[in-house]
Amino acid sequence: MSGADVNLVLRSTRVVTPGGTRPATVAVADGTIDAVLPYDAEVPAGARLADFGDDVLLPGLVDTHVHVNDPGRTEWEGFHTATRAAAAGGITTLLDMPLNSLPPTTTVDHLRTKRQVAAPKVHVDTGFWGGAIPTNTKDLRPLYKAGVFGFKCFLSPSGVEEFPELDQEQLARSMAEISDLGGLLIVHAEDPHHLEAAPQRGGPAYADFLASRPRDAENTAIIGLIAHAKRLNARVHVLHLSSSDALEPIAAAKREGVRVSVESCPHFLTLTAEEVPDGATEFKCCPPIREAANQDALWQGLADGTIDCIVSDHSPCTTDLKTPDFASAWGGISSLQLGLPAIWTEARRRGHGIDDVVRWMSAAPAELAGLTRKGAIEAGRDADFAVLAPDETFTVDPAGLFHRNQVTAYAGKTLHGVVKSTWLRGVRIADEGVLTGPTGRLLERNS
Ligand SMILES: [Zn+2]
User: Is 395 in the same domain as 313?
Assistant: First the structure.
């Protein structure tokens, strides 16, 4: 310990470190982790001690897939409400998706607008993905220089007209440009031709909706994406994997050295098609929640490392857009505040430990985005933490969520794991659901 500068010491019998979970004392100086010390290390004179007993001290979660929708669709969400929900849920860093806000993050000017809007509102550290659309190949380089963490594209319609999808030729062109920058392309991978060919019956039946977004649409898009990445030696990331059939080609590509990474989401890993009531479009997202057997295979993909990380894909809207017709309802699931307990509940049931959850929800997303100061409790990283009571349970009451719209597929579920407090750069920003003012910073790539 460097001694004089340490102003905060956190202690728990269960501190999740890269080397495992153990009793430890964490010394913090000026918002940065100074040292991870033995449990009974002496507290320096003048330092404040926060002793969490047997509650788990874990690195703050990093959620690289959040649709904040601000400015432009702030009735859906916004930087204030989204980052408050994040803080309450143990997330200390989030990356905002480039679409559903107006403007979308497809030019440097648009990025500037978003940063100006976000700056005074963020309760957690916040960064931005850029967007790759058919018309902005020339904007990718300046956007990257301006600090976006990489670029998102769609291969099928995104749901909003200002963010069109790329065809295969445009995909190859954007990927080559981004690869040339040394950047990362993150992809909504559903093949438009398979979607067009699928039966589009509409209506309230979940089975019909599921049939309209078949696994083959994902599988085909992912296999094509891997082929492009291999040919261009580009770095690509598969967003929100739902189809477990794609695990095998992804695993094979990884073995071959193709630079592909993969995320899945709490809804694919904790909810099943079998349980979605007809008309319950709070469960609608694209790709869709699939069958229980598919979910088992996704967990196997997490266990064997084919899936790298778990992020929310929090994509809210107003209540009126969740009509009971699965074809016309807005697709997107709200879960920013609930991801940690939802995943922890299912992970522990399947025999995983909290170390696994921290790897999937903090370390791996931080690594994906190149956030070298986030994602681990070790010296030199930001003093970002969540304190979790892993055995306590609660029942999800939508009224208790900080999301702008309290629509959630998790309503009424009893979950394990209560987030007691959240710390950002050594300051407690959430304490038993009570939040401080916004002290988050805007992040740029490599910052
Ligand atoms: Zn998304």
Answer: no
| Dist. CA 426 → ligand 1 center (Å) | 30
CA proximity to 387, closest of 353, 440, 423, 425: 423
Same-domain pairing of 175 and 191: yes
- Position 197 in a domain: yes
Helix axes 215-232, 168-181, angle to 10 degrees: 50
237 plus 155 within the same structural domain: yes
Sheet of 130-131, strands arranged across: 130-131, 151-154, 184-188, 235-238, 260-264, 309-310
Q: Report CA(242)–ligand 1 centroid distance (Å).
A: 13
Ligand 1 centroid to Cα of residue 132, in Å, is 14
How many whole angstroms from 251 Cα to the centroid of ligand 1?
A: 23
Query: Residue 36: which domain range?
Result: 8-57+383-432
The tally of domains found in the chain comes to 2
From first to last of its 447 residues, what are the pLDDT tens digits of the chain?
555 599 999 999 999 999 999 999 999 999 999 999 999 999 998 999 999 999 999 999 999 999 999 998 998 899 999 999 999 999 999 999 999 989 999 999 999 999 999 999 999 999 999 999 999 999 999 999 999 999 999 999 998 999 999 999 999 999 999 999 999 999 999 999 999 999 999 899 999 999 999 999 999 999 999 999 999 999 999 999 999 999 999 999 999 999 999 999 999 999 999 999 999 999 999 999 999 999 999 999 999 999 999 999 999 888 888 888 999 998 899 999 999 999 999 999 999 999 999 999 999 999 999 999 999 999 999 999 999 999 999 999 999 999 988 889 999 999 999 999 999 999 999 999 899 999 999 999 985
What is the reported pTM? Answer: 0.97
Cβ contacts of residue 126 below 8 Å, gap of 6+? 79, 83, 93, 94, 95, 96, 118, 440, 441, 442, 443
Going from the Cα of 97 to the center of ligand 1, the distance in angstroms, rounded, reads: 7
Q: Is residue 441 part of a domain?
A: no
Which residue in this structure is represented by tokens 């709490």?
A: 266
